[in-house]
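Margin note from the TA: students keep mixing up input and output lines. Inputs are the sequences; the output is the structure of the whole complex. Example:
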Amino acid sequence: MTAYIAGIYEHPTRFAPDKSVSALHAEVASGALKDAGLSLRDIDGYFCAGDAPGIGPMSMVEYLGIHPRYVDSTDIGGGSPIAQVAEAARAIDEGKCDIALITLAGRPRAEGQSPATLTRFREYPENEFELHFSPALVSRYAMCAQRHMHEYGTTSEQLAWIRVAASHHAQHNPNALHRNPVSVNDVISSPLISDPLHRLDCCVVSDGGGAVIVVREEIARSLKQPLVSLKGAGVALGYKLGVPFDITASVGIESGSAAYLEAGVSPSDIRYLSTYDSFTITVLMAIEDLGFCSKGAGGQFVSDGSLISGNGSLAVNTDGGGLCNNHPAHRGGITKIIEAVRQLRGEAHPAVQLPDLALAMVHGTGGTLDQRQGCATIILERE
Amino acid sequence: MIDDKWDWPMENREFWDASERGILLVKRCIDCEKPHYYPRLICPHCGSHSTQWTESCGKGRLYSYSFFRRANPPQILAYVTLAEGITLLTEIIDSDYEKLAINDEVEVKFRVDPDGRYIPVFVLVK
């Protein structure tokens, strides 16, 4: 698998009452193409997921006026674009396309759409047994946190450090929704939304989106941006059958292992991680599942500001992440890729840029952490 | 009675009929003998199409829970591990959140949903 990320773009808006979802997809596509030095006419592969309006990729292909030879709209939740980088690389390898566009966009804030409504479809087979409880996403993640606290002694203060690190990074991001640095005390004294998770344990609701361009090696070398290649990838789906039952780990264990294996690297080689942060517990479990510490040691690992760039062995989400910066369409996948590429190019804000960074990991946890989930992990390299 | 307005799939009708009589059913595979949740026609452990309903004793332990304060009324969402070994998504009712602890013993009660189904929820065993 050889492919390069040649273009990235994160929409600066966080509130888009005057734009359609398709217009947002089009704007992020243009932004990423401009970043790569390409145009819409060059696109011959297109990737999107459930946030794109219409049946699969069909409406967006028409809206953009592109004629891709290869399309894919596999949806594994908010981490879909991370899996699609790997899918695009595979398609490029097989000669099915040369220049692939991945878009993600939405306007849940303008539409007043709560993430709690995301899975309220009667047709889902699980919902005959779940829908009557109207289980809020935050309550599901809160149960993971509660059990993690019970099994490993994880504390609310430790979870709060994840938000503290995100806010510390976000103060340098002019587009971030929340730019004020917060303290552990600010987090644990913010209102409890679903115990044990507080308001500041939850990500933002924002409009906007982002896009990524994945290209063949020869094309990457002919373009203007620094070379960032895909070195390894893994995708895994997880679910519970009632027995055995464990909600303190995700299938990030599997997607992460596959990515390490393909890239030929180990956790100690990774100094920067973009990881899904729908809630603070999502980050804590991912750090364990990706092998940066042992299961149960995540609370200690994230404490004392260790995730802040320059402080510890691993910097996380230097754009402020979904917790403080942006979570367009309730989906955190695309912004995670974008900040990792910025880090590898040396284009992150100077206050958060890691010096001489050669490798970065991007990890997504979509769906629900307690039940059916899709995890995707990629490892990117600066040449 | 729920007959006239039943518009869920028929494959789990026996579960809801039993619930109406105060009995919690668990789906178990005849071939591999493992239980599963949520109930379905095929066994998700081995792929067998031979599954059967078995009666649960209705008792279990609190696996995890959360307290959604904004819900009206506030909701204790929970996972309960039944004595039969499976863990299901449910709610804890008639209980003070502050007094709950993981591994607490709980037992099933049924609450009538607006669509007529009797929904299994749990209370603390005193």
